[in-house]
Amino acid sequence: MAFLEISEVEHLKSKIESDAQTLKRIYKSKNTKFHQRNVDHNRLEEFLKDGWEEHGKPLKTKTSVRKAKSHDEQFEDDIWCQAYKLGFNSLNCNRDFHLPFGKNSEEKKQIDVVAVNEDAILVIECKSSQKPKGAPSFKTEFEALRQRIDGHKKALVQMFGKEKRIKYIFATRNLRMNPNGADALRLKEAGGFLYNDNTYKYINRLILHYKDAAKFQFLAMIFKGQSVKDKKISVPAIEGKMGTKTYYMFSLEPRLLLKLGFVLHRTSANEAEMPTYQRLLVPSRLKGIGKFIQGGGYFPNSIIINFNETKRQKIEFEATSRGDDTNSRSGTLKIPNAYAIAYIIDGQHRIFGYSQSDFMDNNTIPVVAFKGLEPNEQLEMFMDINQNQKAVSPTLRITLEEDLYWNSPRLDSRIKALRSSIISMLGEDSSSPLNGKISLGEDKELLSSKPFYSALTHCGLIPEAKGNKFTYEGQNLSLYDVRNENYKDEMLSTRSRVVALIKSSYELAEISLANKNEALILINSNRGSFAFVSIIGSLSCFVNKTSSIMLSSPDEERANKIEKYLLALFAGLKDLDNNETKHLKEKLGSQADTLWLRHFQKLIHNKFSEYNPPELVDWEERQDKELQSVGREFGTDIEKHIKKKVLYNLDAFFGENIILEIGAIHRDCSKRASEEMENNYKQGLPKREIDWTEKFTLNDYLKIIEKYWAKEPENKTDIFNTFEEYYAIDLGDGFKSKKEKLKWYSKFNALRNLWAHEASNEKGLNRDEVDFLRIVYERITQIDD
Fold first, then answer.
1. Residue 474 pLDDT
2. Which backbone phi and psi does 743 adopt, to 5 degrees?
3. Of 767, 757, 459, nearest in space to 620 by CA
4. Residues in Cβ contact with 552 at an 8 Å cutoff, skipping those fewer than 6 apart
5. What are the residues whose beta carbons fall under 8 Å from the beta carbon of 447, sequence distance 6 or more?
6. What is the DSSP letter of 42?
7. pTM over 0.70
8. Do β-strands 365-371 and 303-307 pair in parallel, antiparallel, or remain unpaired?
9. Is the distance from CB of 268 to CB of 202 less than 8 angstroms?
10. Nearest-angstrom CA–CA distance, 380 and 370
11. Handedness of CA 646, 648, 650, 656 (dihedral sign)
12. Which of 449, 530, 756, 776 has the fewest CB atoms nearer than 10 Å to its CB?
């Protein structure tokens, strides 16, 4: 007996539209944020009172009006449009679609989107919130879901036949449902698929990058492991061994590979598949490959895949022969005809390129297929193949470090993995204020992962390492127990502590700056992210050093200890005037991150003087104009003294033969003088002869000083002093060799750039460096006195 009456089947079919032109018109109306109507002029006031607004120029008898869709209507329309763009060619016309799940008249459920194509039927329910929030409990609804889905399937089979795969999709927007939580587990056990914000964004990017081929990756994702057909695919193949790994070589049609294959794109939508590693395709490259194939082109190299076997889906190889001179053997490979049975390690551009051509069914592609590769082995193979090809993007590389290095024998590599893992948790944890805001893998979001990575490298929350040794001076102030030899447990514990502290700090920022949008934007920018995470690390080290807080202290206690300092920062950000804000935003280059961080630190120091980290003290000294003036004066006088004494001693040594003695230096100086005169002439400046002695560099002086270190003239007078007597200065690091006695010169040469190129170098001198210049000045001039 049929599940539905024929009249009910026909009634339901009438609500499904399959005409291409009609679907195109429906798509156009759904693919906008507004309801739009043309109303008679005499009814305009009625519509305006009901929340509509005029839009565009009035017509002769009618006025065009529009009204924003509610968030739930918008979400349903967005999902409908996405299904349409994925190539589903039969869809419900409107929201009035009630699908039976039982024979009683009340056993029907309103379905938001029903989408049908040649392979599949999607039954989609949409739940949304206007603003992001935690999802309510769906326990009651999901516990009865299996039975309801079974009823829906019976109705759909009667409508469309039994050849199509049917999938129930629970789509959410702005509802944070833990993908590993109880409700998500109930949904999965009932045979449903959770389609959250991450999935929606990922599919949109697939459509953008893969065009018509996006449907293959989409179907592989939602039907993963389910059979396309019950009968296995049989292909002639060669079996071989590579190390301990078994692999097969064969050829297969592109359409089959598109259905069997799955690309492990590094996006939040694929987080259950970790480790994932692939880049999204480049649309222009995909189009070019399709055009190349369509024009008769071909690729002689093999696609590389790994068979993703399950208990129900096993690869079989029936050997027929083995050669006398090889361990390889030929035979028949039987591949389960199932979605996502093969992970594509290399060659996705070639496979998906065939979807842009007419040769998906009548060409075959050479394939090398491994069986049983561990996820990390797939990742390493991908990196090895691609290291000499198109560079893996910095964002993807940062994200991959967690999987590449988590169990590395090198400490510094494990610390890289820890940084990567912390960033991933901040961006993927549904309870995190940064959820969906950090670019991870191939997901492009508001914030780059790089500023978080840079901040975590140096902020003190985790120690720095080189090789197998910790190098960070304040390692005992970090949230990593360097004494714990069980690094696996310690990495997990450290990650938990760091993520908890950063999350609570961002939550405090959201609350404190709720009504100060400009200040919150500063923190939620790339520069601000670096500065804020660095501040969190700086404050954590500060309270670890100055209070009773310990590594074993509860996360909440640690967060409470730094709260008052963060509140001082937020108060300072609220009070920034437009000029200060503009100064921060306009700063570019390598110094910008430092400027933001020091500015944040100073806002805290202004209220809590005890918080005055050494790097802030150093930075403020380098901004002190009076101190810079003093240092510049000492430096200039030192250089004048060196020039005067070098020329004086050379004259005493060689008289008129100076040029012959220092020929190479003379030629270089003369060339510089000549070039400067030529440049002045071309710029229209007054003509002035430049003597070669004006173009000495500090390195020129040093060569002369070293070469004639202890030399004395033949007719030495009492007032003559050797270079050694003038320039041997004890810095307390040894004072025996000429190199030790001239060690100060290298430091002086480096500092010279800080005042000689003041306009382009904003670093400046700190107080210790000015004191050093004072000591040098006093030492080399006291002999003359």
1. 57
2. -60, -35
3. 767
4. none
5. 434, 437, 438, 439, 524, 525, 526, 529
6. G
7. no
8. parallel
9. yes
10. 14
11. positive
12. 756
**Cα–Cα–Cα angle for 147, 151, 154, rounded to 5 degrees:** 140
3-state secondary structure at position 688? coil
pLDDT-derived band of residue 785, with 50, 70 and 90 as boundaries? low
The answer for residues whose C-beta is within 8 angstroms of residue 536's C-beta and 6 or more apart is 459, 461, 501, 502, 505, 562, 566
Q: Does the pLDDT value for residue 267 go beyond 60?
A: no
What are residue 348's phi and psi, to 5 degrees? -65, -35
Q: How far apart are CA 46 and CA 50, in angstroms?
A: 7
Domains and CATH numbers, the chain: 6-33+69-195 (3.40.1350), 227-392 (no CATH), 395-619 (no CATH), 625-782 (no CATH)
Give the number of residues written for the chain.
785
> Which secondary-structure segment (H or E) carries 467?
none
Share of the chain above pLDDT 90, in %: 41
127 bridge partner residues: 172
Share of the chain above pLDDT 70, in %: 91
**Quick one: which of 391, 396, 415 has its CA closest to 405?**
415
Q: What is the mean pLDDT of residues 49-56?
A: 85
Range of lowest pLDDT (39-48, 562-571, 653-662): 39-48
Q: What is the pLDDT of residue 566?
A: 95
> Between β-strands 90-92 and 98-100, what pairing exists: parallel, antiparallel or unpaired?
unpaired
Cis peptide before 275 (omega within 30 of 0): yes
What stretch of H or E contains 768? helix 767-782
CA nearest to 70, candidates 113, 35, 94, 46: 35
Query: Per residue in 83-126, pLDDT tens?
Result: 999 999 999 998 889 999 988 888 899 999 999 999 899 999 99
Q: Please report how many Cα atoms fall inside a 13 Å half-sphere around the Cα of residue 374, on the Cβ side.
A: 6
Instruction: Give the contacts of 762 (CB within 8 A, at least 6 positions apart).
Output: 591
d(CA 298, CA 212): 21
What is the average pLDDT across 652-673? 92
Q: Across residues 164-173, what is the average pLDDT?
A: 93
Contact 502, 566 (CB under 8 A): no
Q: When comparing pLDDT for 27 and 352, which is higher? A: 27
For the residues 287-308, what does the mean pLDDT come to?
78
CA distances from 449 to 277, 446, 530, 660, 670 (A): 16, 10, 10, 60, 51
* Distance separating alpha carbons of residues 460 and 389, to the nearest angstrom: 36
Of 36-45, 224-233, 392-401, 545-554, the poorest mean pLDDT is in 392-401
Band of pLDDT at residue 284, cut at 50, 70 and 90:
low
Per-residue pLDDT band for 760 (boundaries 50, 70, 90) equals very low
How many C-alpha atoms does 725 have within 13 Å on its Cβ side? 12
> What's the distance, CA 143 to chain centroid?
38
State how far the Cα of 670 lies from the Cα of 375, in Å rounded to an integer: 65
Q: Which residues contact 236 (CB under 8 A, 6 or more apart)?
A: 250, 330, 331, 332, 333
Distance CA 682, CA 676 (A): 10
Distance CA(87)–CA(211), nearest Å, equals 10
> In sequence order, what are the beta bridge partners of 237?
331
Whether 566 and 508 have beta carbons less than 8 Å apart is answered as yes
Furthest C-alpha separation in the chain = 127
Distance of CA 322 to CAs 240, 243, 331, 710, Å? Answer: 11, 19, 9, 83
